[in-house]
Specification:
Bound molecules: nickel (II) ion
Radius of gyration: 16 Å
Number of strands: 5
Strand content: 25-35%
Largest sheet: 5 strands, mixed
CATH architecture: 2-Layer Sandwich
Helix content: 25-40%
Length: 137
């Protein structure tokens, strides 16, 4: 088994809040990320896939196709968008890094399988110091 990772980047806006909380309650629970007028992050997405090396190519998978898959299914949909309002696969979900990483997994899983590999980890950096890792369960 071997693992390979492709990095992509995107910028997006979000707000962490509950509609049933007041602005004060939201600020207490979600901090700066609850700013009612939105704010942005420069996200870094690391998609790690795993499988066996193809003896005919020496590759696990075609990284160009993996990059294209991530661009088509994720980056095109979130880059320069408002995650709460404009991203179909995040509709009615919390716009947290955790939920975003889990949703990205769901969006990519079948496409990665079609490339002859399996998804291993979605690592999503929201900032230099905060990131999440999701392994599918
Ligand atoms: Ni934030």
């Amino acid at each position: 088994m071997i693992y390979i990772t492709r990095r992509e980047r995107f910028n997006a806006a979000h707000r962490l809040f509950r509609a049933d909380f007041s602005d004060e309650q939201n600020k207490e629970v979600f901090g700066k990320c609850s700013n009612p007028n939105w704010h942005g992050h420069n996200y870094e997405l690391f998609v790690t896939v795993k499988g066996e090396v193809n003896p005919e190519t020496g590759f696990l998978t075609n990284l160009k196709l993996l990059s294209q898959l991530i661009k088509d299914r994720i980056i095109e949909k979130v880059d320069h968008k408002n995650i709460n309002m404009e991203v179909a696969f995040m509709k009615d979900k919390f716009a947290s890094t955790e939920v975003l990483a889990m949703s990205i997994w769901d969006e990519l899983e079948t496409g990665v399988q079609a490339l002859g590999a399996s998804l291993h980890c979605i690592k999503l950096h929201e900032s230099e110091n905060n990131f999440v890792e999701y392994f599918g369960n």
